[in-house]
Amino acid sequence: MGYYIAPRFLDKLAVHITKNFLKLPGVRVPVILGIHGRKGEGKTFQCQLVFEKMGIEVTNISGGELESPDAGDPARLIRLRYRETAELIKVRGKMCVLMINDLDAGAGRFDEGTQYTVNTQLVNATLMNIADNPTDVQLPGSYDSTPLHRVPIIVTGNDFSTLYAPLIRDGRMEKFYWEPDRDDKVGIVKGIFEADGLSQKEVEQLVDTFVNQSIDFFSALRSRIYDEQIRNYIHQVGFEKVSLNVVNSTEGPPEFKKPDFRLSHLIESGNFLVGEQKRVENSHLVDDYNRLNRGRNSQSTTPPATPINQSSSNGATQEPKTNGFQKQEVSSPHLTLETQEQIRQLLSQGYKISIEHVDERRFRTGSWQSCVHSHIDAESDAISNLEATLAEYSGEYIRLVGIDPKAKRRVLETIIHRPHGKN
């Protein structure tokens, strides 16, 4: 299988990496190159091809490594990998880079439901510090005055608008939006099907038939063409013997003849994949489930329409009958049912509650301020404090915070009020 490197991609990476290894007088070179774009367009794979072509060694970090139950671990990991890469440059005498895949998945904030943890703050601060001082990157608890070799950092992601704004500003991160044009797609797809005998014209027709599909669609399409032969093989040996024949066979792994790679067959299989995509897009089952759960919660939390102070025939006031072992729920006309249910769930799990507010100017920097002096562990106190906060800070953002007192960490951060908006 042949591989195609998009000229624009090769040019951008080569210039950025080379520039970081040169000493240009009076020129401030950004250490970080952020490659962003739609999912499945081959950002990471194109990077790997460029690295291989230029003979560059890579130290990889996944976006999934940017969170940990222990505060500070991801930031320390970034510093450690950076120092290791700098040492590789010194020892090997060749270009090396640090690459962080899916940075927005590990450090981005997509909505108010995304938890902004201490680790997220430290990861952002660490990358900013490295971008500002690329030759002075220290590990926590130690200091080495020897300057490090500058290491270019390549990060990939889909939506960099979810990242901390000071991190992606010009001077710290150079941005490159990768969206392959038709010529790029034709070149990459031709490389995918190079061993299958497709002509240039057939590749172009295939790309034009599925013009809105990303690069990974065509790779998945080629893989799917083998499904028919594998299915026949499974039926031939029997479901019970597949494991022995494939994993632990004395005859070696099975061999398959070349499948049918005619253009008509590829288009037929491609249409089937597109149909599966549309089923996923149109299902929206999670919306139905959430709507159903909200309905059940609202029914379970709505108090019965029982008169509280109804006078009897003899003039005495009758109190509502309650079970002595059942805790009476507190309700608020000013808070949504979802917010009240969140409060009850947090307290029932042994968590405590805090309330924070921030004005519109400081909202972008995440400079929240607490509205309570201590953590709340009673439902009535939480509701009354929230109502008072809503009245006092109606023109600001207000969020509900759930805190695990044993682990001393936040388990929930959710905005329940926005300026000039509804609760």
TrEMBL record:
Lineage: superkingdom: Bacteria
GO molecular function, one term: ATP hydrolysis activity
Protein name, UniProt field: 5-bisphosphate carboxylase
Pfam hit, one: AAA
Record has DNA damage as a keyword: no
Similarity comment: family membership: Belongs to the RuBisCO activase family.
Amino acid composition bias (Polar residues), ranges on this chain: 295-335
Domain Ribulose bisphosphate carboxylase small subunit residues, every copy: 327-419
Keywords: ATP-binding, Nucleotide-binding
